[in-house]
Design brief:
Blueprint lengths: L5 H13 L1 H4 L12 H19 L1 H11 L4 H5 L5 H11 L1 H14 L1
Helix pairs in contact: 3-4, 3-6
């Protein structure tokens, strides 16, 4: 998997705009008794399904790009491989920072 770049944040932002009406219902602060990793993971569990429902093709292509594969290569991976990529993204400090900062702008 490759490191995230500035371009990735715009791609994610574009996908999030497509689910904006649903995002205003999301509690970006989460349970403040949880550590940052746990809150980020819980937030990812809410946002990922919203994004996949609204813009599957965009999200799938981006996951393939992050995994440094063509879509055909990505499609031929093991059934749980996309979950590995999503887990990688959820754990990435850049994504955590993005969602914390984006969340503060939305609310």
């Amino acid at each position: 998997m490759r490191k995230l770049k500035a371009k990735d944040l715009f791609i994610v932002g574009s996908m999030l705009r497509k689910v904006a009406p649903e995002l205003v219902k999301v509690d970006f602060k989460g349970d403040v008794t949880q550590d940052t990793d746990e809150r980020a993971s819980n937030l990812g569990k809410v946002i990922v399904p919203l994004v996949f429902d609204a813009c599957f093709e965009d999200a799938w292509a981006w996951l393939a790009d992050v995994a440094e594969m063509s879509i055909d290569e990505f499609n031929s991976q093991a059934v749980d491989f996309p979950i590995e990529v999503v887990e990688y993204l959820i754990k990435t400090e850049d994504m955590k920072s993005f969602f914390v900062r984006a969340g503060s702008l939305i609310k």
